[in-house]
């Protein structure tokens, strides 16, 4: 089977033997759909049941929590460059989501239903192990970023972002980084100016 438009990036995350398996590729195309999303739109809104997981071909997304007073808190970032699988914890718990996933760039994603991921995992053990490995890697990286954020002063964390996650500081608007750090937009801008300009 020739290269499948829209799936090239995803196929680089699975074993080569599976990426060349015509039966798997046929099933993959049959059970996924390509979703286009505009900047500012939501993949998942708070209170919705999340039945889908997504692979980011192109774009940048934030996970955010909104409390009962309407205060927002950014809890993570996903992009075509890093952490390309995105969903909410509700995907695993099947409870209404406490989080939202919002596009902050125009994007294109592959959409997988929970049922189809389970079916592909049952039919193709290599897919199951690859999917689990990728999920564990992303969870580990997100927890590591959270741990660094919690244990560093704002200045130290900003240095860490510039040194280790340049894609965040170069693509994510300042206000979302400030929310993630738990500081005001103005304080973030002052810090950035003092440390890097």
What report would you give on this structure?
The protein is an alpha+beta fold and 197 residues long. The protein is 49% helix and 23% strand. It is built from ten helices and eight strands. It has helices at residues 8-11, 16-19, 22-31, 90-93, 114-123, 125-151, 154-164, 166-171, 174-181, 185-196; strands at residues 32-37, 42-44, 52-58, 60-66, 72-79, 85-86, 99-103, 107-113. The strands form two sheets. It has a four-stranded antiparallel β-sheet with strand order 1-8-3-6. It has a four-stranded antiparallel β-sheet with strand order 2-7-4-5. The model has no long low-confidence stretch (mean pLDDT 89).
SSE string, helices as H and strands as E: HHHEEEEEEHEEHHHHHH
CA radius of gyration: 18 Å
Biggest sheet, in brief?
4 strands, antiparallel
Number of E-type strands: 8
What separation lies between the terminal Cα atoms? 51 Å
Helix/strand/pairing category: alpha+beta
- Hey, roughly how much beta strand do the residues contain? 15-25%
Mean pLDDT: 89
- Kindly report the spatial arrangement of strands forming the biggest sheet: 1-8-3-6
The helix fraction, in percent, is 40-55%
From the spread of the alpha carbons, the general shape counts as globular
Q: List low-confidence stretches.
A: none
Helical element count? 10
């Amino acid at each position: 089977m020739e290269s499948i438009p829209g799936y090239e990036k995803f196929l680089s995350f699975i074993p080569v033997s599976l990426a060349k398996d015509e039966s798997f590729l046929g099933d993959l195309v049959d059970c996924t759909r390509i979703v286009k999303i505009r900047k500012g739109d939501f993949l998942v809104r708070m209170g919705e049941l999340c039945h889908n997981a997504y692979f980011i071909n192109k774009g940048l997304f934030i996970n955010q929590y909104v409390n009962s007073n309407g205060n927002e808190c950014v809890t993570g970032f996903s992009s075509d460059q890093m952490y390309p699988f995105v969903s909410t914890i509700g995907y695993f718990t099947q409870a209404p989501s406490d989080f939202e996933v919002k596009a902050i760039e125009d994007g294109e994603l592959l959409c997988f239903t929970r049922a189809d991921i389970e079916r592909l995992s049952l039919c193709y053990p290599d897919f199951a192990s690859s999917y689990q490995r990728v999920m564990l890697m992303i969870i580990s990286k997100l927890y590591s970023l959270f741990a660094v954020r919690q244990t560093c002063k704002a200045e130290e964390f900003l240095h860490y972002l510039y040194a280790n996650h340049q894609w965040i500081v170069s693509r994510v608007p300042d206000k979302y980084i400030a929310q993630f750090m738990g500081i005001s937009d103005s304080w973030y801008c002052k810090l950035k100016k003092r440390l890097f300009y």
